[in-house]
What we know:
The protein has 16 helices and 17 strands. 39% of the residues lie in helices and 22% in strands. The strands form 4 sheets. Strands 9-10-8-7-6-5-4-1-11 form a 9-stranded mixed β-sheet, with helices on both faces. It has a 3-stranded antiparallel β-sheet with strand order 12-13-14, with no helix packed on it.
Amino acid sequence: MAFRSLYVHWPFCIKRCNYCDFLSHTYSEVKELAAEYPQALQQEIRMYRAYAGELVSVYFGGGTPTVMPVEALVETLEFVRRVFVLADDAEITVECNPATADEDYLRCLHCAGFNRISLGAQSFQDAELRRLGRAHNAAAIEKAVRDARAAGFDNISLDLMYALPGQIMADLQYNLQAAFALQPEHISLYSLQLDNDSPWGRKYAKGLLAAADEDLEADMLIYAWQRLREQGYAQYEIANFAKKGQRDFRSRHNRMYWQREDYLGVGLGAASCLFLRRWQNSGSLEDYMHSLQRLHRPPVDEEELTMAQCMSEVMFMGLRQAAGVDIYPVIDRFRVDPLRFYANELPPLYAAGLLEYSEDAHSLRLTSKGMLLANQVFLAFIRDDIEDIQYRPPAPPEDIII
Length: 402
């Protein structure tokens, strides 16, 4: 039982977007600490050498990793390779704001071993991008894709947002068509969330900003599903789509998370789940840096997971996938059969046409209707009444101290 997926958080951005409540700092305001951050990351990475299996996914996310000097990212990836064993076909992803990297920068990343890039496009309309508070315009997205191709990247993902305040169906149609013209291998769709501590979230809480109409949001998602299928993209999760072909362009990082595999997150505020313990690093940049400079583990919020929590996560993360929850691997890992564990919760969901069980695939999965009402379905799998039940996995190897 060892992690095979590593997430590296870079908590720096050009500026904070209006919808964002991620843990990040404006790079220009913390430049001195940011320059020391890679050394802190390396110290934290070193602490988890004994926990690792062969890594099949490394993901540099943020924030905006590419706001950093390219040497910082390259040297950190080289350090990861020295500390851990990476699979020959490991997926190594870097998130990028189109305003932060040119062809030379991206070529350095590709030569260092990054083989997948996730571009935060969000929209192809300058007016929408300004409202979102993005630092780039539509032309910068197109240039970033061209530069990434020229640098050698053949696995490019675009993030698009929908259900923005004031957005109409024609806006989504335009953004999708512009994305298709760039022929990315992967597209992720994100509906705007306003129930958070972002500038827009605070306006929404005060009644100063209206959310998109729920029916329109559902219509947008249905329309996007249809257009993406027509353009040769396979839906493998509620809002994630990969080009069909001989090569698998599904995000390995996301799939391992949805399949409830162990993962390690390093960096400010990064979360980890390992040996049925979950922890999250301190959100204070100063505390994080000072702890690692003193060779101490950064302060964390930590909990031991109960069986109820584990099974809830298995269901509401696994059901996000088009393939659903594969029953046999869950039984093998947790020694629990979800069909029995949720024997009372499943029949009403079947009857409502929200969930189905495939005898051939031995999997539970959402129906098309269920995908539109996924959050309501997931609520059925929260079992507060048995939170005291603990699962004790086999003892870890002797050389691993938890």
